[in-house]
# Entry
Amino acid sequence: MRYCWLLVFLCFGWAVTAQNSAKVKELERQRKKALEEIEMTNQLLSETKRTTENSLNRLNLLSQQILSRRRVINLLNQEIGALNTQIRRQNQEIEKLGKELKEKQANYAKSARGLYKRRSSQDKLLFILSAESFSQAMRRMRYLREYADWQKRQAALITEQRKEITRKQEALRKTLGEKQALLATRETETEKLQTEEISRKEEVQQLNKKQRDLQAVLKKKKNQADALNRQIEKQIADEIARAERERAAREAKRRAAAKKNKTPEELPEERMAAVKGGYAMTKEERKLSDDFAGNRGRLPFPVSGRYTVVSRFGEQQHQELKYVRMNNNGIDLQVQPGTEARTVFNGVVTRVFVVPGYNNSVIIRHGNYLTVYANLSEVYVKAGDKVTTRQPIGRIFSDSEDGNTTILHFQLWKEKTKLNPLPWLD
# Structure
């Protein structure tokens, strides 16, 4: 019975240890990903010149780097906590196994002393022959045989338990080593964080000295963003009007045929808007729209390589610069020079156009959803082209006069409403 309980205890211990190890591995995976983000941000910072045009980008990169570094330290704390739990559990298992082993050794020693006193085969024979009946003699024979088997099992269990304790002790030493390594890594990351926070403070001081210049740059960028927004809104309005004209033409043709009691030939495909005043969609477009919506949170990022989000969606008061208030209709992704923009879902290119400050821009329709890819130096598609998920549609512009800073501006619309793209992307 005790052997069964030992097996249950060992199996439970193994299961809990495996579960804890899986948690540590997942935390380690997240930490490595955060460190990759920091490495990417470091590279972008080294390539981004200290100019007024780039000043906010540099500050945003530093802030992003600090957030990633804090995440790394938080993950390290969680890893160390998980290892502490694992160490406590391993110590408990070793202590439990040690007590079990001592008890087995004591029982085995006691039985060995008893056998020593009756060690001769003659004693065993007398023990059997002194039985009062044949059935009692048989029981004594069976007892001696089972007792001998029990001794063999006990000896095997003691040997195995010693090996198990040795294995547990080795695993404990390994876990302690991992903990020490993580503590050293945490100390290093904390020192880097302090250095980065000093750099950010210096960057803010420099920007405060150039407040007037920065505000002029921001005003220029706002005008450019407004111009891009007007182009997108005009395109949306044109497409809604065109789809409505097609729907009206179909209805007029159907009515004309009804007056003559004839069936109209080759009616245009029926269109229907999801909302009043919205884009009238065909059956195929409605399915595409539903598929797009069904992939919320799973759409790929609209770039071919690694990226850093340097500006987020919506109107925000800058945390460090109280005189700076930004409004972004989408998100800005800073990438390596030569990176391509790629589609986030199947769709149709509806327009390719140029806006000062954003170079070439591409609009792709996915039913009643639109995605916008702005600041391209080269475009691979044209209006009317059908595109597929992750298809490259152009090369992102790199500003050679500004340290080859390469930023994609990406927007997401539903009908006439701007949406925050980040919750849609994976």
In short: Confidence is low (pLDDT under 50) at residues 5-10. Residues 228 and 263 are 45 Å apart (CA to CA). The two ends are 53 Å apart (CA to CA). The first helix runs from residue 2 to 47.
